[in-house]
Structures are given as structure tokens and as C-alpha cells.
Amino acid sequence: KQEVTQIPAALSVPEGENLVLNCSFTDSAIYNLQWFRQDPGKGLTSLLLIQSSQREQTSGRLNASLDKSSGRSTLYIAASQPGDSATYLCAVRSAIMIKAAGNKLTFGGGTRVLVKP
Amino acid sequence: DGGITQSPKYLFRKEGQNVTLSCEQNLNHDAMYWYRQDPGQGLRLIYYSQIVNDFQKGDIAEGYSVSREKKESFPLTVTSAQKNPTAFYLCASSAQGTSYEQYFGPGTRLTVT
């Protein structure tokens, strides 16, 4: 059974510092991995989706890397701003589940980020 | 303006009552999902539907029921059999295709007392 872990659960940094968020998963047979942002009391916003064949994906100040063999993904946010304060969740999509029963995501518990001005 | 809508944003019910949460999408997506989120935790899958008139149980389906009579709509009923119904409920949808990327609605916070 796939398990996804995000450590640390919470992180506080001064404005301007780069953020490094970690995600680890136990089963390397993934189809792809998604990083989401969640503001308090809101739904999830998709930030980046990285396919199992990719090593990294970039969007603006965000960069996600994927090392499937070691079961790890890292989300980098450059030059953090107070507006980046939110909870960041990673979720993996199983390669086996895609074929057998469709699109099932397994989520980590999230990392709550506070960027101090 | 395409997207997923969930209503209401906040819902309060007395213990023992069934309650139905609404989810509508105009993205023309075939698949829809219901997740539950508890404080400080990730999302857990309740039910999902890949096509109209068909749905499957997720990891925590006990005490919940769904229907999928229209492509655009996937309502979730929280029954009195659900032992701990107070939570944040999120609906999502996805197109079947290369990435299967899921898009989420704004959520409904249900409080049962």
C-alpha cells in the first residue's frame, strides 16, 4: 500500500529565503506526482504535475524534482514571499491504479509554511 | 468561467440526520471524486466515479453514499451511520487522458453536533 510522507509538518522562514519542501513515497511504481497549495479553509490549487518519466518540472519560482528510485520529490520555491504562506501537499498517482481502477491519488499530510515579512 | 462549485460552504447538522453535499462541474470531465480532510491531515478518498451511473468506493466509504445521474453532478450524502462526520469535504474532477490531473472545488465544512 502506497504511503506518502511530508516532513516537516510545519516550516517558518524569513521573506526572501528559498523554501525546500520534501515528499517521500514508499512504492516507486507511480504514474505521476502532483504538488498542491491549500490556503486556510479553501480547496486545493494544483501547482505542478511531474510525470514518472520526468526528473523535474518548473513554473515561475517553483521547481519540483522527482527521484522515483529513491521515492522522493522536492518542491523548491525561490525567493519566498509572505503570499507563499499556505499548506503544501504532495500526492502520488499509482501506475497500477491507472490501469486497474482509474485515477486514485494518495496524499501526504502536508507542510504548513509561514513566510515572515 | 469553467470550474467546480460546492455548496454550501458551511453546513451544520444535528447528530442522526442525513445531509447531502453538492458538487457541480462544467469542465466536461468524465471522472469525479469526493475526499475528506481532517485537521492537520492529508486527503482521504471517499468515493469516485469514472462515468455516469457508475461509482466505486474509496478508502473510507462507510457511512457515505453517492449518485452520478449526470456528468456534471456528483452529490455526496453523509448518513447517520458515519461515526465522525465533522470534517472538510472536497470534491474534484479530472479528464481521462495523459496526466489525469485532478482539479478541486472550494470545499464544504460540515459540523455535526
Strand and helix layout:
The complex is a heterodimer of chains A (117) and B (113).
Chain A (H helix, E strand, L loop, with lengths): L3 E2 L4 E5 L4 E7 L4 E9 L5 E8 L4 E4 L2 E6 L4 E6 L8 E9 H7 L3 E3 L3 E6 L1
Parallel strand pairs in A: 2-11
Antiparallel strand pairs in A: 1-3, 3-8, 4-5, 4-9, 6-7, 7-8, 9-10, 9-11
Chain B lengths: L3 E4 L2 E4 L5 E7 L5 E7 L5 E9 L2 E4 L6 E3 L9 E3 L8 E8 L7 E3 L3 E5 L1
Parallel strand pairs in B: 2-11
Antiparallel strand pairs in B: 1-3, 3-8, 4-5, 4-9, 5-6, 7-8, 9-10, 9-11
Can you offer a commentary on this structure?
The complex is a heterodimer of chains A (117) and B (113). In chain A, 6% of the residues lie in helices and 56% in strands. Chain A has 117 residues and is mainly beta. Chain A is globular, with a radius of gyration of 14 Å. The mean pLDDT of chain A is 92. With 113 residues, chain B is mainly β. Helices cover 0% and strands 50% of the residues of chain B. In chain B, the strands form two sheets. In chain B, strands 2, 4, 5, 6, 9, 10 and 11 form a seven-stranded mixed β-sheet that branches. A four-stranded antiparallel β-sheet of chain B has the order 1-3-8-7, with no helix packed on it. Chain B starts with a strand and ends with a strand. The mean pLDDT of chain B is 92. Classes of the chains: A mainly beta (117), B mainly beta (113). The interface between A and B is medium-sized, with 27 and 29 residues.
